[in-house]
Amino acid sequence: MLFKRRTETVLLERLRLLLWPRRSFWRSAKYFAKRALRLQATPHAIGAGVAAGVFVSYLPTPGIHFLLAAVIAWCIAGNVVASAIGTAVGNPLTFPLMWGATYELGRFILDGRAIADVRPLNIGEALKNLDFYQLWEPLLKPMTVGAIPIGLLSGAVTYIVLRWAVAQFHERRRSRLAAKAAQTVGSEGRTTMSVRP
Question: Where are the chain's structural domains?
Answer without folding.
Answer: 26-33+40-163
